[in-house]
Write a structure and sequence with these properties.
Length: 160
């Protein structure tokens, strides 16, 4: 199986969803356990061993979101217009968190981030999620607060 950045984002959303439901104490161990589980699938089930740039791409997003979750959540709450973050579905929270992280701390163009987030929400949740994801991330992008980088050279991958 040839993996793509899209697949790496799907793995990241799976990890972020799991972390939202059962917050890990040790992020590197949590990520390692995910890859081991993925590699343990039978050949018939599409076994895949992920290495290199795509694994790094997924791990960077997971570590970045988990390491900056409080800051990301503080960004999201005012963008939700009379909704509490906890009322969103787990998948929607994971997609929004990763979208904010990518716009704020990665070099991926904002339109690409929004498009990928919409597709991920549609794939892992429901078509109705598309509207929410698009509205929130578009609002964040237009605020101008989604500038890349933190200003101090850090990529936002601290510990929880």
């Amino acid at each position: 199986m040839t993996a793509t950045r899209r697949q790496a984002r799907e793995w990241a959303i799976q990890m972020l969803t799991a972390a939202d439901l059962n917050p890990p104490q040790d992020i590197p161990s949590f990520i390692s356990a995910f890859w081991e589980e993925l590699a343990s699938l039978d050949e018939e089930d599409g076994r895949v061993v992920v290495k290199g740039k795509l694994r790094d791409f997924a791990e960077e997003r997971v570590s970045g979101v988990l390491g900056n979750r409080a800051e990301i959540d503080a960004i999201l709450v005012p963008l939700l217009d009379n909704w509490d973050l906890y009322r969103l579905g787990t998948v929607e929270r994971a997609v929004l968190r990763m979208g904010v992280w990518e716009m704020k701390w990665s070099d991926v163009p904002k339109p690409v981030v929004i498009n990928e987030a919409i597709d991920l929400a549609n794939w892992f949740s429901s078509p109705k999620s598309r509207t929410l994801i698009n509205a929130v991330l578009d609002k964040f992008a237009k605020m101008g607060n989604g500038e890349r980088g933190t200003g101090n050279g850090e990529r936002g991958t601290g510990n929880v």
